[in-house]
């Protein structure tokens, strides 16, 4: 009897190059199966045992049906100005826990909850032109350079460093010009060519070109009349042709539907919406792709070659993730479920929260508090005993509120607590799994707060925002504190002049009265599971504050241009701000002091090769401290309409008391380039430029003049 030899399909042969494996699988699929695999929530293709890759979320904690490590929100991560922390600790923890869930599902389907795939819809890198935007907690601030640097770090931490295998696939959200929630599925952003290329796109380019992000989500809005889901210029000309993006584009949920029911000027049938989305460059979408791609192909509205290209992009990512390899061969298959919420991961959450807290004001050195002399602390406010979450993290691990953190770090000190008053902000809303407490009567709560504040050595008042004020689909209606919060601060400060205000918000809080009358102010964001401990560490001087603002805190709402204005030169951000801010971009105080001196440049003439700029930073205080050294450029008269200054470098450094270290930056011609409408490209003009080095955008310590010939 002759021996029967079974030949393994090429697409299952792990020794073959991925492109050959992908092409082989595509050649075996019917049109209907191809369409099914372009639906991100499709049923399995049973003939080949191919599961739909169920995407997941992990913005500051992996979504699962049980607890995962819960980090500060991304705006807080941005306030660390610490790319190493974001890449090698925070995002690595996130990707470890995501892989552990995936591994657990493979090894024991009953132990790991529902199946989760390896395509993760993070990070959100939309830029904070609009301080009212309800999703500022998800993003990384107002500056393209800072946002791009953080995005690159986060993406690399998620996707891993192996050149042939992806740990996860990161998805950049939401491409592009998206930071208004009201009518977002109909919104049209009118943006000039220059402003698109100088402000709205550079951070996406960095995350694609340098970070290697595998996926990009097309946003709901239109740009200059063209909805992004069918925007060929954006998704193909810029992203795939100019930036050489080899991954795939996915629509936002309901993106195809918005072509049918949303954008008035572009309404069309579902067949046409699917065809035009694919032709524009949107590769992956909802159930409409599965249903209407075969119809569009058969009606001649969609070439099969474009379907195959979209499928190749999606499948290539899945092959790199190991979806079609034996599980036991995966280089990340060893990560166990036990890493999730582990002590080491919790320590990273603590460090992230510590580094993110910004000391905004410290008049009369009111902070740090001397735990040896403080006998009674009043902890007050609607956010003092509350954990704030967001839409895209998991179930909370046991989390530490400010009240609990102060109690834990100050044993033997009498800690009194009062809710203080209502947060307000409209209908009470919660993120999934948010930890809350009941709201009391405002008058009685205020009375309790004043009673304990009057007998305490110091009053800590925690105010800010929650999902009732800012979240997805809900923009803020004011930049001021909502409800009774400012009245609470004023009343407490009156009975106890040693009052410290802790701001717990995502977007900036315009609170000029508090800045004028309260000596100590901290920005603590929504700080994650260890936020209470981190804040207590700062209050008691166990940790030196080192966070710096990733956005401008405007002095008044009148200082902010209309949110319908997409030209930031009209007065948005530190780059074009008109007047003095309440707190500047990059601002952050320390319990020690830093001196900058002896800045030198390798050459004052910038040619084709980058130049080096070195400054010397000395810790002139009595405490060890981290400093964030920031480099800005000014274009002077070289470019009309250029920003006041523009961030082009930053480094976070640690200095012992009395220590001096050199900090060096590289600067190239590209760092000085601006968009030229005539040539439709960036150009660097000859002339004199200023290079400024300092602690923030309004605290410049050293200036060097250079020349471009």
The CATH architecture of the largest domain would be: Alpha-Beta Barrel
Query: What is the name of the CATH superfamily of the largest domain?
Result: Glycoside hydrolase, family 3, N-terminal domain
Would you count the extended β strands for me? Answer: 25
Biggest sheet, spatial arrangement of strands: 9-15-14-13-10-12
Main beta sheet strand tally, sense and closure:
6 strands, mixed
Q: Which structural category do the helix and sheet elements fall into?
A: alpha/beta
End-to-end Cα distance, whole Å, is 83 Å
Q: What's the alpha carbon Rg, rounded to whole Å?
A: 26 Å
Instruction: Count structural domains.
Output: 3
Low-confidence stretches: 1-6
Per the CATH scheme, the topology name of the largest domain is TIM Barrel
**In DSSP terms, counting alpha (H) and pi (I) runs of 4 or more, how many helices?**
19
What does this structure look like?
It is a single chain. Helix content is 29%, strand content 19%. Helix 16 links the parallel strand 13 and strand 14. It is an alpha/beta fold. The longest helix is centred in the N-terminal third of the chain and has 25 residues. Helix 9 crosses helix 10. It is globular. The protein folds into 3 domains: 325 residues, TIM Barrel, CATH 3.20.20.300; 234 residues, Glycoside hydrolase family 3 C-terminal domain (Rossmann fold); 115 residues, Immunoglobulins (Immunoglobulin-like, Sandwich). The chain has a 6-stranded mixed β-sheet, sandwiched between helices. The chain has a 5-stranded mixed β-sheet with strand order 17-25-24-19-20, with no helix packed on it.
């Amino acid at each position: 009897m002759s021996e029967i030899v079974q030949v393994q399909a090429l697409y299952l042969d792990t020794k073959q190059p991925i492109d050959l494996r992908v092409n082989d699988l595509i050649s075996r699929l019917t049109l209907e199966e191809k369409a099914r695999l372009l639906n991100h929530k499709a049923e399995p293709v049973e003939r080949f045992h191919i599961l739909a890759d169920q995407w997941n979320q992990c913005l500051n904690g992996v979504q699962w049906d049980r607890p995962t490590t819960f980090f500060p929100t991304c705006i807080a991560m941005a306030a660390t100005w610490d790319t190493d922390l974001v890449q090698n600790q925070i995002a690595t923890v996130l990707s470890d826990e995501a892989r552990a869930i995936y591994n657990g599902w493979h090894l024991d389907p009953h132990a790991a909850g529902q199946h989760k795939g390896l395509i993760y819809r993070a990070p959100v890198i939309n830029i904070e032109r609009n301080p009212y935007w309800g999703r500022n907690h998800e993003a990384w601030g107002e500056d393209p350079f800072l946002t791009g640097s953080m995005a690159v770090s986060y993406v690399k931490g998620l996707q891993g460093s192996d050149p042939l295998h992806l740990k996860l696939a990161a998805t950049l959200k939401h491409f592009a010009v998206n930071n208004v929630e009201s009518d977002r599925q109909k919104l049209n952003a009118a943006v000039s060519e220059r402003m698109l290329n100088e402000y709205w796109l550079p951070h996406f380019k960095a995350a694609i070109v340098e970070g290697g992000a595998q996926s990009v989500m097309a946003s709901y809005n239109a740009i200059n009349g063209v909805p992004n889901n069918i925007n060929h210029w954006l998704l193909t000309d810029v992203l795939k042709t100019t930036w050489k993006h080899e991954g795939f584009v996915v629509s936002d949920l309901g993106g195809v539907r918005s072509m049918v029911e949303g954008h008035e000027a572009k309404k069309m049938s579902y067949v046409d919406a699917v065809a035009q989305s694919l032709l524009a460059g949107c590769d992956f979408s909802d159930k409409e792709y599965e249903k209407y791609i075969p119809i569009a192909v058969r009606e001649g509205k969609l070439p099969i070659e474009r379907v195959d290209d979209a499928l190749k992009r999606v499948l290539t990512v899945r092959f790199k993730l190991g979806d079609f390899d034996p599980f036991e061969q995966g280089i990340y298959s060893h990560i166990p479920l036990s890493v999730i919420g582990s002590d080491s991961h919790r320590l990273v959450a603590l460090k992230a929260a510590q580094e993110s807290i910004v000391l905004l004001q410290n008049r009369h050195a009111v902070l740090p508090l001397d735990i040896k002399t403080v006998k009674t602390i009043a902890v007050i406010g609607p956010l003092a005993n509350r954990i704030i979450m967001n839409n895209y993290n998991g179930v909370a691990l046991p989390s530490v509120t400010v009240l609990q953190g102060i109690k834990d770090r100050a044993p033997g000190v009498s800690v009194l607590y009062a809710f203080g008053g209502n947060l307000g902000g409209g209908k009470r809303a919660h993120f999934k799994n948010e930890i809350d407490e009941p709201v009391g009567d405002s008058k009685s709560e205020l009375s309790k707060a004043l009673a304990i504040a009057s007998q305490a050595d110091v009053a800590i008042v925690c105010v800010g925002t929650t999902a009732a004020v800012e979240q997805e689909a809900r923009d803020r209606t004011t930049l001021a504190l909502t409800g009774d919060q400012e009245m609470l601060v004023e009343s407490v400060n009156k009975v106890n002049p040693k009052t410290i205000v802790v701001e717990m918000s995502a977007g900036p809080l315009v609170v000029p009265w508090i800045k004028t009358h309260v000596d100590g102010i901290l920005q603590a964001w929504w700080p994650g599971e260890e936020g209470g401990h981190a804040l207590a560490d700062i209050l008691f001087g166990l940790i030196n504050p080192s966070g710096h603002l990733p956005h401008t805190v405007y002095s008044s709402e009148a200082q902010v241009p209309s949110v319908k204005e997409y030209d930031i030169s009209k007065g948005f951000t530190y780059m074009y701000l008109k007047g003095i801010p309440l707190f500047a971009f990059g601002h952050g105080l320390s319990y020690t002091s830093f001196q900058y001196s002896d800045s030198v440049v390798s050459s004052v003439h910038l040619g084709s090769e980058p130049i080096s700029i070195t400054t010397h930073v000395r810790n002139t205080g009595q405490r060890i401290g981290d400093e964030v050294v920031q480099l800005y450029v000014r274009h002077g008269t070289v470019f009309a309409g250029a920003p006041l200054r523009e961030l082009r470098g930053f480094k976070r450094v640690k200095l012992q008391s009395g220590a001096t270290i050199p900090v060096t930056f590289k600067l190239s011609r590209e760092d000085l380039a601006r968009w030229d409408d005539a040539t439709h490209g960036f150009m660097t003009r000859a002339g004199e430029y200023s290079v400024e080095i300092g602690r923030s955008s309004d605290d410049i310590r050293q200036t060097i003049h250079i020349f471009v010939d």
